[in-house]
Amino acid sequence: MYPFVRLIKELVVHRKAPALDILGTHVSHHRCWPHDIDNFLEMNNGRILTILDLGRTGLAQRTGLLRVLRAQKWGLTMAGVSVRYRKRITPFVKFKIVSRAIGWDDRFFYVDQSIWIGGECATQALYRSAVVQKGRIVAPARVFEQIGHHGTSPELPLWVKNWIDADATRPWPPER
Q1: What share of the chain is helix, strand, coil (3-state, %, to 5)?
Q2: Residues 36-78: pLDDT tens digits?
Q3: Residue 174, in any domain of the structure
Q4: Residue 175: inside a domain
Q5: For range 132-155, the mean pLDDT
Q6: 3-state DSSP call for residue 107?
Q7: Cis geometry, peptide bond prior to residue 154 (ω within 30 degrees of 0)
Q8: Is 161 exposed, middle or buried (0-12, 13-18, 19+ CB in 10 A)?
Q9: Distance of CA 63 to the CA centre of its chain
C-alpha cells in the first residue's frame, strides 16, 4: 500500500520550508518501519523506490513544481530509473533522503536521489522524469518557465549522459 500517511507528513513538515531553486537540494528524514521490510529483514527494494517518491514530492513542493502541476492540470511521470543498492536498511533505522534535479534535455529532467544512514550512502537512484499533458510530454523549458526559472540546463554529468546513451540502445518493446 502507498504510504499516504508519510506523504501527508512530508507535505505538512515541509510546507513552510524555504523555497528552493529548481536545482536546489531537498533533504527529508525517515525511519524504516516493520511494514517496510521483506523476508530478509531489510527494507524491501520496491519500498525503497516508493520512499524515494516522498523525497521527490518534497522537492517538487519546495521548487514550486507541485503548484504549477495543479495550476496547469499537468501530470508527472517517471520514464526510467537506475538504482544502486549498497547498504541494507534495517528495521527502526533512521535515514535521510537527499533529492535534487541535476539537469534536463528537450523532453526529460533528471533527478538524483540518495539515501544516507549517518555518513554512509545506502542507496542512490537516477530518475528520468517528464511532465505530461493529455498523454504528451511538456518540454522542461516550458515547465521551468512556469516555475520562474529561465536558465538553461547545466551540463549533465558524464555518468548521466552514459546512462541515457546506454538506455537508448535497449530494445523496446522488450524481446519475449
Answers
A1: 35, 30, 35
A2: 999 999 999 999 999 999 999 999 999 999 999 999 999 999 9
A3: no
A4: no
A5: 94
A6: coil
A7: no
A8: middle
A9: 13
